[in-house]
Amino acid sequence: MKELKVKKLTDNKRGFTHMAIDVSEAKTVIYLHGLSKDSLDQWYESKGEFTKKTALNYFYAGQYKVVFAQGMTKSNVKDWI
């Protein structure tokens, strides 16, 4: 079972409001939540996995943009905020 650690992001131009990582595993994708222009929920995750240590560093710094380097996809993991 996933144990997601969730962080509220500062306002940004991309519309992402929260990021999350699974701290129960040695490796994790990074999850992102955003709002569309119509204020509808959108759920994404990175295509690649990060070690827990690296993911935690990005998480605490709020560096959600690292997800773009590996690409991202719509996520089936939803409703975590």
Defining key terms:
2 helices, alpha+beta, about 80 residues, globular
Give an overview of the whole structure.
The chain has helices at 52-61, 66-70; strands at 4-8, 16-22, 27-28, 30-35, 41-46, 50-51, 72-74. The protein contains 2 helices and 7 strands, in the order E-E-E-E-E-E-H-H-E. The radius of gyration is 12 Å and the shape is globular. The protein is of the alpha+beta class and 81 residues long. The two termini are 16 Å apart. The protein has a 5-stranded antiparallel β-sheet. The protein has one domain (4-74). Strand 1 and strand 2 form a beta hairpin.
Write the layout of secondary structure elements.
Blueprint: E1 4-8, E2 16-22, E3 27-28, E4 30-35, E5 41-46, E6 50-51, H1 52-61, H2 66-70, E7 72-74
Antiparallel strand pairs: 1-2, 2-4, 3-6, 4-5, 5-7
Short précis:
The protein has 81 residues and is of the alpha+beta class. 19% of the residues lie in helices and 38% in strands. The protein has one domain.
The secondary-structure class comes to: alpha+beta
Give me the number of helical elements.
2
Largest pleated sheet: 5 strands, antiparallel
- What do the pLDDT scores average to? 95
Order of helices and strands: EEEEEEHHE
**Strand content bin:** 35-45%
Rounded to an integer, what's the Rg over CA atoms? 12 Å
In total, the number of domains comes to 1
Helix coverage percent of residues? 10-25%
Cα end-to-end separation: 16 Å
Q: Widest sheet: strand order?
A: 1-2-4-5-7
